[in-house]
Amino acid sequence: MARRLVLGIGNVLMGDEGVGVHAIEYLQRESWPADVELVDGGTGGFHLLDYLSAKEPLVMIDATFDGKPVGTVTTLRPKYARDFPRALSAHDIGLRDLVEAAQLTGALPDVHLIAVSIGIIRPMEMVLSPMVEAALPAVALAVRAALADQVPLLTPTMAMAAVAPAEAGHA
Fold it and tell me: What pTM value is reported for the model?
């Protein structure tokens, strides 16, 4: 059984808001150790509590409206539910609610939250914007760093630098 979990959260029907799920699809194309489980968490929900128990570390990927440039990848190390961004995304049961429930049951492992900055939610749009899609390699690097329990070598500035050449190709 996998001991390390990478959980992508998001609604793929709302454009960039689905980046966590798109990231899982991207990561599934790469090779991972047998003890790593990649899970499409969809729009979240309390059914995900079972995934949280006995997983060390837990790496979560989700969109965030944090005011940073679109496509910025940031890794957070929240310890408590209050450490998660308040309005991380537009899910019915947000990550913060899920984390609070996990804390109550004693099932919350060490969490690495990889947040991808987005600008707007585009309803009924199933593809990522070019800048968010170009950030997926940076997300993969952040996931590998989190699983190795290392401080990510990727900063938001480096993520934007990685996105810039890809954005030039879409002009």
Answer: 0.80
